[in-house]
Amino acid sequence: MSPHIAAIDQGTTGTRCILFGQDGRPVSSHYEEHQQIFPQPGWVEHDPLEIWQHTQNVLQGVLDKGHIQAKEIAALGITNQRETTLVWDKATGRPYGNAIVWQCTRTRGLCQRLNDEGLGPLFRQRTGLVVATYFSGPKLKWLLDHVPGLRAQAERGQALFGNIDTWLIWNLTGGPRGGAHVTDVTNASRTMLMNLTTLDWDQELLDILTIPREMLPAIRPSSDKATYGLSSLLGASETGIPVCGDVGDQQAALMGQACFAPGEAKNTYGTGSFMLMNTGERPVPSPSGLLTTVAYGLEPGRCHYALEGSIAITGAAVQWLRDNLGLIKEAAETEKIARSVEDAGGVYFVPAFSGLFAPHWDMDARGIIVGLTRYVTRAHLVRATLEATCYQSREVLGAMEADSGIALSALKVDGGAVVNDLLMQLQADILGKPVIRPTIRETTSLGAAYMAGLAVGLWPNLEALRHNWAAERTFEPGWDEARRAQGYRGWKRAVERAKGWIEP
Fold first, then answer.
1. CB of 308 within 8 A of CB of 249?
2. What is the spatial distance between Cα 10 and Cα 451, in angstroms, rounded to a whole number?
3. Hey, what long-range contacts does 202-207 have (CB within 8 A, 24 or more apart)?
4. How far apart are CA 174 and CA 441, in angstroms?
5. Which has the closest alpha carbon to 239: 452, 75, 457, 19?
6. N or C: which end of the chain has fewer CB within 10 A?
7. Prior bond of 176 cis (ω within 30°)
């Protein structure tokens, strides 16, 4: 068997492919960024055809850089930005419009009506999710209600729905020529349409949102020994490369961090930040504003669950400093600039550009910067942006410990932003807990590779994957409790001022 697994990581800002060896270490990597489309305030879109083209490019690029032939790839795994929603024509493969990104708030009115009608608890009970603009179901209903002719096409089975994983797998396995229309349990659990207990689409919820079942993909395990399909995209062989791993990006990072046991947790720093804790083979309800979701599934009808704290804007706030305000030229500058001052000068930045996610779930919140004086400089604003990431994570961790009854002794971290040593030190200071950075930082791609590799037997079991994990550095907290408590009090005051900004 070939010793290589290819993992496609289709994220919010770009698409990466990493080729991994059997030791779980990267062999080569290729990345391409895609356009962010903002048609109206609060609306966020992506071009699905651009994403598909970039996926093909990075697949070929990773082979070229690694001097690897396609026939040396044993399997292909997918991980993806979750909740981002699109619909396309089964016969032509043409999307009915741009994908609606998870950050988009256009479904605010619909979500408010569902909550006003008292349906929030039903969705919460069945899906583990709150009714919010974040999830795929309301986005899909918006498309059905606003794209002319789409509902009729969907009822005939001509229009296919999917998150980005479904779109890529369908194209990789043939597209209009018999492509597999599937998703995995983790991505399905982010639609507001899947029943957490049955692991199937919930007909009552589909009826409430008037979504035709005919357009929904089949729900499969995250690691599928039967494979979703075969890809001949790279011309590997007559049979093709098995596409047999599919897992939402945050669950993929949980796998890449080897958090296979109940109580193990990680935090991923990307466009947003997402903290997940494995809770085992039972869903744990959250009274504290967290989400109950699927962690992974290795066989049909069974899965492990997780508690999740979703934060909409962390890394995206740094992009905003760069692209909208011009305060920095690149994200890597933030560490040096923020180190030039001892603190944030009394400034708090609550980046609620898409409302507040966990644990507040306030669709009407908007971003604010408070505590400004003439003393404040660019460096203070940059440092406040880094601190915002850390304070939001502290809120989520507190809720997670309360719901699970488990006090974390340390937090595993991953994602692009963990290269910033100051950010990681601030996170340890603000949490009052050690923060552990792994040797392999692209754990999201690694998790997708693990799911595909398990399916084809490259790794025999989860325990074999634990041996691949190693810590690169541990950041110990340096603040005393008084400073930590004072900073957190200020943060909570700032959050209260951000809430409810949009009037009905």
1. no
2. 16
3. 202/126, 202/127, 204/122, 204/126, 205/122, 205/123, 205/126, 205/127, 205/137
4. 32
5. 75
6. C
7. no
